[in-house]
Amino acid sequence: MKTYQIIILLLIGTLTWSACDKEDLVNVDEPNHRVVYTSQMDFQNRIQVNDTMSFGDVSAGVISRTWTFPENGVNVIDMTTNSSTNAIVKALFTQPGEFEVDLHQVYKDNAYVDNILKGKELDTTIVVKVLDSIKISVQANYLNEDGSLGAALTLEDMAENELEASKSVRYSLSTIGEPEDIAWSFEGGDPSNIENETEVDVKYRRMGTYNFQVVASRERPFGADTLSFTDFIKVIPSSDPVTLDAVIEEDGAIALHYSREMDPTSLRSGDFSVQIENSETILNPLVANVSIDQNQGNVVLLELENEAIYNDDTVTVSYTPGILSTLDGVAADAFEGEKVVFSGENVLSPTAYDYSFENSTASNWPYLGWGAPWDMYDFSISETQSQLGTKSGLVELRPYGGMIIGHRDDNGNNITFPIEADKTYEIGVWIYIEEMGTIDESVELPSLRFFWNPNTNWAVQGPSFDNSWPVGEWVYASTLAEFTAGGEYRFMIRGANTKQTEGIKFYMDNISVTEARIRP
């Protein structure tokens, strides 16, 4: 009896093992699935000329494959022809351009491409973009007073191209190899540094001999080229009148920015007067000291005696002709009631907010859908006028019209900036009115407002344009703002011309949000 039991158990075990074995054989059938990769697939298959790139076929169920490369500009490593049947192939690209690499595969059965079942034979084309090595060239021209190009400068070390103080040079860059970043450096120039522009106008105010450099680069595939010239510009004295270009608060002092270097021996504190207005209070502090900025010879610094200035003050400066003159002997003209612009760290600067309009397009400043009359406007990015840099925002408000725009990135996301609680901020913008006709001052004036969201204060103030507003020059306008809470905010920029029979056309540039100091 025990013998029969043992035999029966052995038979059952054999049948069980056989059944499991067949089931396992079914489960391990290999699917046919296309899996193709390249060594640069995460970087849009972009490489630099004379670099190599690997191609791999790790598809399941492949019976045969053939890689086919272009005849010209590509060398397949370890192969004498432009084709290969290997699973992994490496190729050297010797010419810039776009190249198509074809893969033909034959599978055991119909194959999957991603999750879609295809046929037994599949064709795949991989497009490789080969970038040329980065190469740059520069042209520099004198810039005439009317903005037209003058003679070309000599592009050599030690050229010492002579330029009268307060004149400008236009630098133009040509590139090969699609650089992603461009960095200019202009010793002694204004601006001294600028990025990602191929054309730059640089003004030189200080006498001396200066270098310049430009670097063009890209991160991947890495490449770079540099051009630099030593002793390139020699700034010489000018007989042109000296101009007062800006009046700015800097570290508690009042900075007078002239068009060229001033003579420190011609400074007399008694030639300057300052008036401070705050509500009904009027102060006339004495100018205790006058000096030249150590780093900028064209900047005259006024220090007040026992008085400070605050963002909620209206501060004006006047100069009665004394002996103030430039280093090249040109006397400075008198001026009266020049308003002081307050400076500070712009909270927009470290964010993606394109406050200078240098790196955005009109599509990044979309209409916010308020309906009529706030859709009766035109907005564009212009290179015709700029307060700093090369671009500004051009606004054209139609008769009885208005504008409401925001600022968004290329994906349609609102661009925001950080605000801290319990602080007062100055919201500022530079405005250049080109056309405004005759303003009817008996009705609501044209205006520009920077509303914010969230926690909008609809009563926030801003510039309003009457017939006394200067036309054809840059004017700084600002207002003080208190935010009810800290956090991330966005602007809704509203231009209003809803009561006027004529349109208005203006540029705006260099929007700023700076922490304000309030008079105690």
UniProtKB/TrEMBL annotation:
<protein>
    <recommendedName>
        <fullName>PKD domain-containing protein</fullName>
    </recommendedName>
</protein>
<keyword id="KW-0732">Signal</keyword>
<feature type="signal peptide">
    <location>
        <begin position="1"/>
        <end position="19"/>
    </location>
</feature>
